[in-house]
Amino acid sequence: MLMDQNLVDKAEALIPELRTTTAAPQRLIEVIADEEAFQGWRTQTVQTIGEWTEQSYGKGDSFVLDFGDHLVGYVSLSLKPVGSPPDAPLKLKLTFGEMPCEIAEPFSSYNGWLSSSWLQEELLFVDVLPAEIKLPRRYCFRYMKIDVLDTSVKYKIAFENVSCEAVSSGDPSRVEPLPESLPEHIREMDRIAIKTLQDCMQTVFEDGPKRDRRLWIGDLRLQAQANYLTFRNYDLVRRCLYLFAGMRLEDGTVAACVFEKPKAHADDTRLYDYALFFAACLHDYYEASRDRETAEELWPIAYEQLRIGLRRLDDRGVVADDSTWWCFTDWHSELNKQAPGQAVLLYCLKRGAELAGSLGRTEEQSFLAGQIGQVSSATLRYLWDEERGFFVSGADKQISWASQVWMALAEVLPPDRNAALMDRLLAEPPSIGMTTPYMYHHFVEALFLVGRKDEAVARMNAYWGEMIEDGADTFWELYNPADKKLSPYGSNLVNSYCHAWSCTPTYFIRKYLM
Amino acid sequence: MLMDQNLVDKAEALIPELRTTTAAPQRLIEVIADEEAFQGWRTQTVQTIGEWTEQSYGKGDSFVLDFGDHLVGYVSLSLKPVGSPPDAPLKLKLTFGEMPCEIAEPFSSYNGWLSSSWLQEELLFVDVLPAEIKLPRRYCFRYMKIDVLDTSVKYKIAFENVSCEAVSSGDPSRVEPLPESLPEHIREMDRIAIKTLQDCMQTVFEDGPKRDRRLWIGDLRLQAQANYLTFRNYDLVRRCLYLFAGMRLEDGTVAACVFEKPKAHADDTRLYDYALFFAACLHDYYEASRDRETAEELWPIAYEQLRIGLRRLDDRGVVADDSTWWCFTDWHSELNKQAPGQAVLLYCLKRGAELAGSLGRTEEQSFLAGQIGQVSSATLRYLWDEERGFFVSGADKQISWASQVWMALAEVLPPDRNAALMDRLLAEPPSIGMTTPYMYHHFVEALFLVGRKDEAVARMNAYWGEMIEDGADTFWELYNPADKKLSPYGSNLVNSYCHAWSCTPTYFIRKYLM
């Protein structure tokens, strides 16, 4: 790892104080199998909070608290024994769920390929009662199941209180209210998107507060764009930029993600598109904040990423597609990444050139302008299939949604042909589709870019609007309206149901609909 | 509860600082089924500690550490990831066992009637690695199993260190070494008895540091007697006496046990014999410590216990035997408690009268002397069966070991006839036998009392000596050489394998064999 301690120190000096709010459970529920409901589960109220606190529980009893909204925070329990003095520890099992499936489907059934350690549960022994317990780990949940595994024959346990101290570095008072004139469902979509962003805003922009709880640059770029139009926490973006800049892979490439603890360190994951996005992120940050000092300090790293990205071009000027690289683009095992990677390179070169101009780095600006020209030409010459009217990718000349979307965003074609490309994409949908909200974001962004605003809004409604219909309190990592149990990990249980890259409806609404 | 805050405050001012020593694992073992071994399990070394620290573990791996001796204390783990930066929490299951059965028999198989919360296990999620973890709960164990439930595909986990900070309020440097002239097996029995006492000596004399972790007066009496000849921690006995004196049941009866946390409080369990033992405990404490101030302050409570005990006499002068009382005596469902209860009353009246004399309470001394005479006469008249040569108990005139032993200890008969009673007991053993080391202690004590020293030593060897043969690191709560899987709780797993009332071989050795 290339470590620039000066930059890392600047990042660490920007660790925000988190804002806290206390949330209480709203009702007791049960989760019921229902083929009609999302993922086959719906909830039903079984008891009020008042009834619950009057009750006491013995061995084998259990209940499910519904906090009424998605939360990220620290849980406290007030426990009171009922009966004789407790003569044995209390043994509880706690299960936290963002979604009803996590409460209904036993974690022991999990057989996915991501670590089962992400499933939020605890086995708790309480040696001394009554007790005020503050659990040390952070949970991400709306539902909390408590199984009383054992008390003793001499006592039962009552729950005087269970609460959650929710945390975020997003300050809702900085978010401007939407005009009342916007339709109710758009305002609701904005609210949920902002809540999604808020719950991901911690001491960095996390990708998902349940899983992975890390700063990924692909997520950061979208979160920052939404943040500039909502919470406007510029320092949090700045902290994240310094973290990426301060810890790079051996050849200077910005890592795909970084960890904060026990001390800041970079992951060993290298993604072609994510490294390039460092330049786009810095461009966007400067545009939003006008913080010239940071932009100037980090410019060399952004420029370096573009130079490293350019090194991947073959002698035709096209990104080499072989087994030596990873380019994220979307969760799709058959998707060829050459054309999307080429488009991301171009997209980022353009933002880099613009930032170089703003900072008066004329020599680098002009170098980048030259590269933009060459890469654009090569793209049109080698990746554009005039006959089919689509960009192709890889040796098999794959035509995918991702390639067209990213080429539209890279503005390789002039505006009218760019719009025609998107119209053609809608009219003649390729079979290699989109799977993540992250990819879906770029699709909607491309529609807005080429002036297809109605279609963009319709697609937002069909995607994030449908998530709302399906019960989203925050927007999800993964969603396919046509296959609602989809998980690339082998199980619904480990999907993140509050995920950074899904927070962008507020960005669209506030950028394009106001 | 009758609360005398002044007495409780005195008890709390005597909370001892615990001595700590650090223990390290000695080897890695596996537990193997073996019909010949105690409880069907034996251990076998599989790896050295040096080999273990070089190793790394992934999902599904597990190992068992053997610390080489019984420990009561706090466990720390040093964890180091191996591979890529950890991208998911580490999920561990920890299982602690005093005995191999606790490692070999899954806790999920437990079906006893005591709370399963006593079984020592933890589910541990470690969000940040590397990590130094100090587990907050106290464990009681020799063996520690670690199951690595999950890491992630990107990393494994290595254990740089696992250690235990063992705690006790017993200071081994105060224990006088035994003369070298005593046989090796007696010295070994003494060592294990002292270790048992030491591990039970915490901020009170606990009955068992694994289970129940409470101060019971029946255990206290024996622990204190052993303590006066070993650790000589008089203040700890004093603390316990003040706890019992300061918190009594509504009619003034000393509770059978008390709890220390969250603040000192008495249990609602009332045992006829245990309440009377308060007077015996105070007598013994004064004899050992000559602390007249404490004896004088607590005398009225001791005297009150004797008065309450006397109230149970019917108009014949015999302890009423009906469904309204509990008298512990031994874990034996068929044992009638009338004669043992009568004997304990007499035993305690005698110690009370002696203490009253020492303290110059002549009026109370003379009252007690009168009662001793009356109770003795009634005992001989109504409970002694001249024809059978045994004391009988209850409506069915049950003849049990417990009745004879306690009558011998109460010295109802003159010395020669008392010795003859014990001889007859050995020659014509009643079918209602003894089940606990607690009862067995009183049996051996009675043999020493009546001058049958060789038989007493033989019985010690046959009981505690056999426990050593069966692998005891500390002496056990329950042991029946004829039925080694015995548990009154429905499972071996919840038996306490370091138990106060089993620590008395050191008392016998140091009182009678030196």
TrEMBL record, chains A, B:
Assigned keywords, A-Z: Hydrolase
Q: State any GO BP term from the record.
A: carbohydrate metabolic process
Q: Glycosyl hydrolase family 78 alpha-rhamnosidase N-terminal domain spans which residues?
A: 25-166
Which sequence ranges are marked TM in the entry? none
Question: Is Hydrolase a UniProt keyword of this protein?
Answer: yes
Protein name, entry field: Sugar hydrolase
Identify the species of origin. Answer: Paenibacillus nanensis
One Gene Ontology molecular-function label: hydrolase activity
Alpha-L-rhamnosidase six-hairpin glycosidase domain segment(s): 188-512
Q: Where is the signal peptide?
A: none
